[in-house]
Prior knowledge:
Elements: H1 3-15, E1 20-21, E2 28-30, E3 33-35, H2 44-58, E4 63-67, H3 68-71, H4 78-87, E5 91-96, H5 115-135, E6 139-142, E7 147-148, H6 156-171, E8 179-183, E9 193-194, H7 199-209, E10 213-218, H8 228-237, E11 241-246, H9 263-280, E12 287-290, H10 299-318, H11 322-330, H12 334-345, H13 350-359, H14 366-373, H15 375-390
Amino acid sequence: MTPLQLRRAREALASFAIETPSWGFADTGTRFGKFFQDAAAIDLGDKLADAGHVHALTGCCPTVAVHVLWDFKPGEDPKAVARLARRHGVRIGAINPNLFQDQCYKWGSFGHNDPAVRAHALQHCVDSVAIGQAVGSEYLSLWFADGINYPGQGSIRERKRNFEAALRALHGKLGPKQTMLVEYKPFEPAFYATDVADWGMALLLAKKAGPRAKVLVDTGHHYVAQNIEQIVAWLLDEDMLGGFHFNDRRYADDDLTLGSIDPYQVFRIFHEIHAFAHDRGRRPKIAYMIDQSHNEKPKIEATIQTVVMAQELYVKAALVDHDALHRAQARNNVVDAELILKRAFFTDVAPALAAWRKANRLPADPLSEHRNSGYERRAAVDRRRRRQELGIKPGGGYA
């Protein structure tokens, strides 16, 4: 790598923080059952300990996203949770309301045709805003399972208007330093008409909600043929890209480690972000977060894999020669423009990553360091014993 490339790499790494999800360290499953791992987290203390361990190894995961119903006990002081996180070397990050688990949400939450259910969902989100303010969280992250499964089941336009009204009301409750992120998903669990099914719907809803509402892009929430980096470029140009959920996909929502299917696509997404920063002279403010729940891979190892891959691809994208790319684009030189991207993608950035880790007193190889630390072995022994004491048995539903 040239001195200029090393400088760009260091600057990119210094600015790149990735949030881990509390639920990613706990036992989850498929629609058919829950599958236990001995070392999986049992409670929030375990989740924060695991997140702190990942941050200590990688140096770029200072915050942990939480789910309100899963991570906060009724009547619990949110500040106590924030103190617990700090004891493990991390902070509470995005607050995720749970708008899909209560029985009243069978027909939807913000899109429901019953005003009482919409009011219940809105109050839960308002309570989540208050939790975020108490723990110093900047982001309220919203994902909705709302939609209909059959033609004629409900009014699509009415559901849209219900969403607009609820999001406007929620936006009015945000603190001055809070941002509301609206996520989208093409299907599941609603298979005929999901209420927030794509980036355009999320964009319109966010714009109508208010100036502190942005769009959240989950890299798994797209059909295979969709050009995610084009979506990212449009949202950047509209100043409406608020955050990412990192995973990878073979179909349209797979909780796979980042880059396991198509690392070049992730590189292209990061390229659009770096290109925007180059052209505008400023880095866009984006919340980067992992959203994965692993059943086959060990949870901490999978998290470390994603973090390390994200760093590598983010650095590679920072090495694109934007001036040369603009010259090639101006001449409609397709070959050279494509090669400029590919040269950056195929650049070995290991020296830059090694130098950054050494400068920050981090392990040269976070995954190997984790395996050699004995952390997972000790956690497995402790948590296996506690499951037995609590009477937790293998099997059961997803949640």
